[in-house]
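re: ur question from yesterday

yeah so i grabbed the chain u mentioned. its 261 aa long if i counted rite. heres the sequnce exactly as i have it in my notes:
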Amino acid sequence: MKICFLGCGNIAQAIIDGLLKSGISSADIACIERNQQRIEALTKQNLQIIELENLATMNFDLIVLAVKPKDALSAEQTIFKMVPRTAILTVVAGLNIEKYSQPNEIIRAMPNTACAFGKGVTAIYAANQNSAGFNAAKKLFNKVGHVVTLQDEGEMHRFTSIIGSGQAFLFQVLNTYLQELEKITTSDQAATKSMFLDFITSLGDSFSQEENFERLINKIKSPGGTTQAGLESLKMNNLDKVLQDAFQAAEDRSIEISNEQ
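ran it thru and got these structure tokens back, copy pasting raw so excuse formatting
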């Protein structure tokens, strides 16, 4: 599969990193990018840097549109003028496919940065889910993690808030943990970071053995103990609602961005 990325910001770079780790050859990935620092980083990965004008002379299974929302519609029109039979996969946030000039030919996806480690979770939608392009897009994202096929594009807003933005919410919580740990392990930062990494990965290990959070919590807490006291504080401060409000705010903003275009 040959892929071209138009725009190589954070999410595109995460997908590229994951694809390379999955065994995709760097020779099968081309990039169109204007930022010189990004070009230098992509070149170090042995990726081919091409100009937009070169698209008409090259054959790609997918062209991944990964530009800013304000640039997406004009970029899509330019691509279709140059290569009218191509498959465009857009990872542009908040922009419904009906906004594009040829919505029936657009495949929309919402990946997250965990794609870089082969652990991404990507929602994908298209009006025509039987096309070769749609199948190629699913194949691409299966190489870098998990794929959720949506039957209603409107579900993309909620998915964005939970999986896309939700990653950052968890990082914010974990940052608080790290700051507290650093207060009592100030002498050796490298050892602290290694300890914290084991702490984070152990959460995944625990869940892989017991996929029920209530039972996992019960293995740690004891009646009248320290964990019970902390859990009661979280409940009193309505942690669930805090997170649900964050998801809702992210979803509302996704809808606003869509309406702004």
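noticed a couple things. Residues 22 and 73 are 31 Å apart (CA to CA). also The mean pLDDT is 93.
anyway ttyl
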